[in-house]
Amino acid sequence: MPKSSCYHCGAECDANIKIDEKLFCCEGCKMVFQLLDENGLCQYYDLSDMPGIAAKGHFVSEKYNYLDNQAIQDQLIQFKLEGQAHVVFYLPQIHCVSCVWLLENLHKINAGIIQSQTHFEKKEIKIVYNPDLITLKELVQLLSFVGYEPVIHLGGNDWLKKKKVNKKQLFKIGIAGFCFSNIMMLSFPEYLSNDALELGNLQPFFIYLNLLLSLPVLLYSASGFFISAYTGLRQRWLNIDAPIALAILVTFSRSVYEILTQTGAGYLDSMSGIVFFMLVGRWFQDKSYDSFAFDRDYTSFFPLGVTVLQSGQEFNKPLSELQKGEQVLIKCDEMIPADGILISQSAIVDYSFISGENAPIEIKQGAMLYAGGIQKGRAIHMEVVKPVGQSYITELWNSPLLKSEKNTEKSFVHPWSQYFTIILFAIAITSGLYWSLHDTHKILPAVTAVLIVACPCSLLLTVTFTYGNVLRWLGKQKLYCKNASVIEAIHKIDTIVFDKTGTLTQQEATQLEYEGSELNTTEMLAIKSVTKESLHSLSQMIAQFFLTKVEGVVEVNQIENILGKGTKAHCGAFEILIGSTSFLSSHGIKRKDDYVGSVVCLAINGDFKGVFKIMHTYRAGMSNLVASLKNKGYQIHLLSGDHPTEKNNLLKLLGTDIPMKFEQSPEDKLNYIQMLQSQGHRVMMVGDGLNDAGALQKSNVGIAVTDQSHLFTPASDAILEGGEMHQLSALIEYSKKAKQIIILIFILSICYNIIGMYFATRAQLSPMVAAILMPISSISIVALSALLSFLFSAKIRSKN
Amino acid sequence: MGVIVILIIVSVLVAGGFLLAFIWSVKTGQMEDDYTPSVRILFEDEVKVVAKK
């Protein structure tokens, strides 16, 4: 039967489920289509090809029962009025025009929704609804049903933590731009002062209007520079804003003096122009990636509500109110919300995000379960021992090592600005002394002109625009940095520490490889049938392995699953033993192979047959990456929370000269970074899970690797998409180029400064010369910065 | 030549009007999202925002 695509989500499907010649891959997709069709919303399918999000039975209505709880509602609802409630949700599934269209037309499906507005880049939706017509739970159910399940965390909601657009910055830019352009226009008669445009008694009008227009620039737009310079001075050091503030003040004062004494027209155009360009530069550098969150702590990881059992009844409760001693119900694929004791018979828990252990573990009744693990088997009951804020994993955030502030070292630009100021004063004083000997009238004009032209502003412009460009190019290659200071921090790194599970390996792709004596069809069938009966994920993987090799199943006569060890079963004529090495040896069967690594052993009728090797798929290009980093002189370390079973593979992959430590707890990793730092190293940590959270925060640069960026990423300085991991070396190299670019551009701007100085020291600086130099210098800096950032990025772009 | 004074005043006022429009647009949050409005243009029907209570 030819394979075709689902009309809704584009997945492969056969011709079983259809309406009017439109095929669907599952009932879920078909139901969404019907809903949209009934409400006249089929334009959804016209705007983009197969825009639907695959339902695949993910919609479970009881999942949102906790939203009936008033305390939780208060946490989520932004604003409430008579008949109106405002709520904001994060919908990571928004990816196309159709999504926006459908989400903004939700009111056609349910009249209780008054208005909904999406923000595409932030992947947010703001909904105004009538709580009397539709409850919050029904609203979330509707969103999930059409494929846009909101991500709701314990911390309330991501919108609480998002950075608001800095309105003040925009006001300052707007006013500076307005004044700058008008002042320049009004200064034209001054530049072109020949008889044709002689203003005569109109001149004061132009000049005083200029003065009036320059006041908002000085007092409002430039205020940021003055405040920053003053704050720096109070702490006894010169930041880059100090010489800038000085230059602005000197320019303004001299202009006012010249205007009031009618000796000239002043340099107000240059002053307002430079303020405008610098403000734009700062705004450009502040590029933020709104759909990522760099500050997540554990509250973004845990769910908001839990199912509590009380006297046999299930009801929902906010996680923050969970008490010690309460019993919790955890279903398959749900997260364990707090440290507790297992009451059910057994549980299969995936701790890979918490501890880095690759394979899920079986837990016996009465043993401890730790918060953050994901239950993989059937639903279990658990008794809470510690509230979530005191669980083993969250205690990490209270570590005293994490209290000190990160990256408090000043930017590398700052020592430069100090030299700059010193040189500036030296030149000013020299020219002042020179003129004091030759023509004392020219001292003040010369000295002030020097301070006007020397433009420490060009250093700031260079830095801000270059960092802005570099940030954007890195983002295009899927390395999203929190802010510009991360780029500077990368320059100083000399050591890189890698995590293993999820960072060097891919989270979701573990493969099996069979090595041993050949199995015939009946044997394979028997093994498949037996493994299908077990819930253990390794057994499931083996069943999956044989899925395509043999058809169907046979009856299993007798089966015995021994927790943590293996399975013994009788099937047809075979007695099958599948399990760990120790399990087989306890039945008197010895392994005949010599493979060292994670395995599941197989024996049939008392004979050892072979092993299933558990292959952890490493991401492509990892050994090249590490070799390249070693070549560049970085020290590499590996810290893993997993058992040392992979050690040999890692030695082959990464080389034998790398310190490797296994079974590291989150605290061990944190302490290791601390130890490296106390030896004087600057450390970059590359990790992915909650168990790396402490190390990521402590290190000088923490990069969180992720394959699914809308899910949890621990607090970090940068987020790297897993698919681009192999580019890490090239990306680090590009970040370091930022410094080279800044130096190159600055040398160029010094040439402008020298020309300007020539005029300034001779006290021949006319407003026109200043007004020409300033925009030329600024615009050339911006253009050159864009050009060089583009050229230097060739290496990271070509690797695709 | 004196008329140039009036012309300049008028042009500055007009420019000031645009500045006020810019300030107003930032205040009402129009600058927070610079991508989604470009997507909304592609919709065919007139989306009537039902703001009636």
Q: Please trace the helix and strand order of chain B, writing H or E for each element.
A: HH
Choose one word for the global shape of chain A: elongated
- Give the strand order of the largest sheet of chain A, numbering strands 1, 2, ... along the chain: 18-30-29-28-19-26-27
Largest sheet of chain A: 7 strands, mixed
β-sheet strand percentage of chain A: 15-25%
Distance separating the two termini of chain A = 37 Å
- Overall structural class of chain B, as computed from helix and strand content, comes to mainly alpha
Explain what you see.
- The complex is a heterodimer of chains A (800) and B (53).
- With 800 residues, chain A is of the alpha+beta class.
- Chain A has six domains: 44 residues, no CATH class; 101 residues, Alpha-Beta Plaits, CATH 3.30.70.100; 238 residues, no CATH class; 81 residues, Calcium-transporting ATPase, cytoplasmic transduction domain A, CATH 2.70.150.10; 135 residues, HAD superfamily/HAD-like (Rossmann fold, 3-Layer(aba) Sandwich), CATH 3.40.50; 111 residues, 3-Layer(aba) Sandwich (Calcium-transporting ATPase, cytoplasmic domain N), CATH 3.40.1110.
- In chain A, the strands form seven sheets. A seven-stranded mixed β-sheet of chain A has the order 18-30-29-28-19-26-27, sandwiched between helices. A six-stranded antiparallel β-sheet of chain A has the order 10-9-11-17-12-15, with no helix packed on it. Chain A has a six-stranded antiparallel β-sheet with strand order 20-25-24-23-22-21.
- In chain A, strand 9 and strand 10 form a beta hairpin.
- Chain A is elongated and about 115 Å long.
- The two termini of chain A are 37 Å apart.
- The model of chain A has no long low-confidence stretch (mean pLDDT 83).
- Chain B has 53 residues and is mainly alpha-helical.
- Chain B has one domain.
- The mean pLDDT of chain B is 82.
- At the A-B interface, helix 2, helix 4, strand 7, helix 6 and helix 7 of A face helix 1 and helix 2 of B.
